[in-house]
Amino acid sequence: MARMATETRAILYGFWLSSCSWRVRAALHLKDISYVERSVDIVNKRSQLTDEYRVINPSQKVPALIIDGATIIESMAILQYLEDTRPKPSLMPRTPILRARMREICETVVSGIQPLQNVGLLSHFDSTDQYKNFTKYWTERGLYSLEDLLQKSSGQFCIENQLSMADLCLVPQLYNAVTRHKLSLDKFPTISKVYETLLEEKTFSETHPENIKQKDM
Amino acid sequence: MGDIIEEKPVLYSYWRSSCSWRVRIALNLKEIPYDIKAVSLIKGGGEQHCNEYREVNPMEQVPSLVIDGHTFVESLSIMHYLEETRPQRALMPQDCYKRAKVREICEVISSGIQPLQNLIVLIYVGEDKKKEWAQHWIMRGFRAVEKLLSSCAGKYCVGDEITLADCCLVPQVFNARRFHVDLRPFPIILRIDRELENHPAFRAAHPSAQPDCPPEVAK
């Protein structure tokens, strides 16, 4: 009798260019959680807007993670769910104050920068140039905030010398800043230094968009 | 043994800032007494840009909370810090899946809606376009929230206990009304908002009850 193959691995709905997807991909990698990625083309095909995908994520965005028989959306909710259910290796510092510093950095990225440079904003502008000016402006503004925060909290990584959710949020956003928005990090020495260190980490090199793009092709 | 005098927490807040409001609700729900230092986002181009406030928060935003000898920024981070250090009157469920549901709603609001209808962004978008722009992003976000609530809401956003999701929802509903968003497509959101309207912690945190609320608005 033929058996239906059921996917027991986690399923990540993401896109190679999506910074939010990269955060989750890096967390899954770090925590050594077995998963398969299904590509949702948010740029050209706009597959996030289909009825089919809306059932998975009513927000019509990536990422969405199917894990433990449930669907979770919003990268910060996913990251913290992974931390709650698979606490080792930990992505959070030990003390409440350091965790607050971590979340300040995360929220500065996820609500202070990312939504204001999202590719989904393009159709709301009269021209591509207007869209580019908007997204570049808000990204740079956010980088000033991050530089302030990192000056107080960083060591090797965002929070002292332990890799945390703050780093998972920082790297994808800086990749966007440098590649899409053509911003120089010269004005942000602390950010630059931490970013260079993080890019050497296996977690980021193995989950890097350039690697995922290859797999999509 | 010496006496430890605990300084009362200080919240830098603007009466109508939804992010400040979230934190006011959480502090009230946890029965943490605090002082408010009002920061006008309007007066003189915005008091958040003045040197005195920049020393509190170089990012020139509200809210900031000074507590336990430290200054904290970012409303969701502040609320999680309060939850971790003052676990009485818990604002997060124990169950991991329900915690994820709370955070989904918080994030859809705090990253999917609020930043796009924030005062400074609307100034950038311009007077002509700002109402339509704000309405679009609020409606889009509320469609997602309503869908999420359809499977996790009980009396409140997630089950029958008040959580951080409710702290984020109520201020966003107020903003939706300010921008004349038609809320009829969102019956669950409306029901929860109505339920919480008369809760003492929410009433005390309401913009109209704030020390910097203009007298013509306060009732």
Automatic annotation (TrEMBL), chain A:
Spell out the SUPFAM superfamilies in the cross-references. Answer: GST C-terminal domain-like, Thioredoxin-like
Q: Where is the GST N-terminal domain?
A: 8-90
For this protein, the record's PROSITE patterns field holds: GST_CTER, GST_NTER, PROKAR_LIPOPROTEIN
**Enzyme Commission designation:** 5.2.1.2
Pathway listed = Amino-acid degradation; L-phenylalanine degradation; acetoacetate and fumarate from L-phenylalanine: step 5/6
Domain annotation GST C-terminal: ranges: 95-217
Q: Which cofactor does it need?
A: glutathione
Q: Which GO terms describe its biological process?
A: glutathione metabolic process; L-phenylalanine catabolic process; L-tyrosine catabolic process
Quick check: keyword Transport in the entry? no
Annotated GO MF terms: glutathione transferase activity; maleylacetoacetate isomerase activity
User: Could you give one GO CC term from the UniProt record?
Assistant: cytoplasm
Q: Which family does it belong to?
A: Belongs to the GST superfamily. Zeta family.
Q: What is this protein called?
A: maleylacetoacetate isomerase
* Source organism of this protein record: Vanessa tameamea (Kamehameha butterfly)
UniProtKB/TrEMBL annotation, chain B:
Q: Where in the cell is it found?
A: Cytoplasm
Query: Per its record, what are the GO molecular function terms?
Result: glutathione transferase activity; maleylacetoacetate isomerase activity
Keywords, in A-Z order: Cytoplasm, Isomerase, Phenylalanine catabolism, Transferase, Tyrosine catabolism
Top-level taxonomic group: Eukaryota
Q: Where is the GST C-terminal domain?
A: 95-215
Q: Where is the GST N-terminal domain?
A: 7-90
Signal sequence range: none
GO CC, sorted alphabetically, is:
mitochondrion
Provide the primary localization: cytoplasm
Which InterPro entries did the record assign?
Glutathione-S-Trfase_C-like (IPR010987), Glutathione-S-Trfase_C_sf (IPR036282), Glutathione_S-Trfase (IPR040079), Glutathione_S-Trfase_N (IPR004045), GST_C (IPR004046), GST_Zeta (IPR005955), GST_Zeta_C (IPR034330), GST_Zeta_N (IPR034333)
Required co-factors: glutathione
The reaction(s) this protein catalyses: 4-maleylacetoacetate = 4-fumarylacetoacetate; RX + glutathione = an S-substituted glutathione + a halide anion + H(+)
Q: Which GO terms describe its biological process?
A: glutathione metabolic process; L-phenylalanine catabolic process; L-tyrosine catabolic process
Annotated pathway, please? Answer: Amino-acid degradation; L-phenylalanine degradation; acetoacetate and fumarate from L-phenylalanine: step 5/6
The record ties this protein, via Pfam families, to: GST_C_3, GST_N_3
Family recorded in the similarity comment: Belongs to the GST superfamily. Zeta family.
What's the name of the protein?
Probable maleylacetoacetate isomerase 2 isoform X1
Q: Which gene is annotated as encoding this protein in its UniProt record?
A: LOC113397048
